Amino acid sequence: MDRLRSLEVYVAVIDGGSFTAAATTLEISAVMVGKYIKALEQSLGAPLIQRTTRHMQMTESGRAFYAEARQVLEQWRQACESVEGLQSTPHGLLRITAPMTLGSCMVAPLVAAFLVAYPQIRVELILNNSSVDLLQDGFDAAFRIAHLEEMDLVAKPLQAYEMLICASLEYLQLNGTPEKPADLAHHRLLVHSSWTQRFNWALKEGNTEIPWPEHWVMKSNDGPALRLAALAGAGILMQPRFLVADDLASGALVSVLGDYLPSPKPVHLIYAPQRARLPKLRAFIDFATQRLGV
């Protein structure tokens, strides 16, 4: 039995909450996950996980073993990175996370160009609008939108996230063009599901902030999907400039309410300072800031 792999499987099971989640993370079958756990329990002579048809929880032994297993895996990662840091040519796996729209429209093309420039590096790009713990979840770097609270991470400023409001000419001809934010109450709106009280895009009228109306005809967690709906004439869209710039240039979409746009939000590339010595991460930081930096 590969003991280090067994530790990795066990930690993945606990972190993911199920054998299936661990199998997806590790790209092996759930049956193989079960075999690793069974072999590990037999080797230790103690059950680590209690399972029923609906629930899974660690035993007392399992909780103690989990804490030590995480520490062993972290020490192994640090040992590998200490050797990797001595190599002159950037290589290896980079794990990067970003919000979905920013990730698909800006970060993904950046990563593609980076892979061409550094063929010995592999990148796992995870797009997710949920907040992740950079170190806990094993990411090398993350792209973040919004003002950052104090943290033990380095934050490189990138181009700001600037929003535009637009609709198709056909929609505006049929429904009229809004002249002020209050007019949006009478329009069909396409909204992003990540807009919450914690992360919102209030319109600006002088010194007054005006919340984006709560009614909508389509809500999605994917900006490009909302863009397609706007192009089809389904309603008014507020999305980042980089997503709709080509449509505005071609006339497929028309900008509205330009005097009331929300204030841009800062974008940062964040990473742990102790990992910046890795050639693969250093190369990506330099590449990203050169192309997207302010």
Question: What does this molecule look like?
Answer:
It is built from nine helices and 14 strands. It is 41% helix and 22% strand. It is elongated and about 75 Å long. It is α/β, with parallel strands linked by helices and 294 residues long. The chain has a five-stranded mixed beta sheet with strand order 4-3-5-14-6, covered by helices on one side. The chain has three domains: 3-84, Orthogonal Bundle (Arc Repressor Mutant, subunit A); 92-160 and 266-292, Periplasmic binding protein-like II (D-Maltodextrin-Binding Protein, domain 2), CATH 3.40.190.10; 163-262, D-Maltodextrin-Binding Protein, domain 2, CATH 3.40.190.10. The longest helix is centred in the first third of the chain and has 25 residues, at 60-84. It has helices spanning 3-16, 19-26, 30-44, 60-84, 100-117, 169-175, 223-231, 241-250, 279-292; strands at residues 49-51, 56-58, 92-98, 121-127, 141-145, 154-161, 163-167, 189-192, 203-205, 208-210, 218-220, 236-240, 254-255, 265-271. The mean pLDDT is 87. GO terms for molecular function: DNA-binding transcription factor activity; sequence-specific DNA binding. This is DNA-binding transcriptional regulator, LysR family. It comes from Pseudomonas abietaniphila. Residues 1-59 form the HTH lysR-type domain. InterPro entries: LysR-type_TF_proteobact-type, LysR_HTH_N, LysR_subst-bd, WH-like_DNA-bd_sf, WH_DNA-bd_sf.
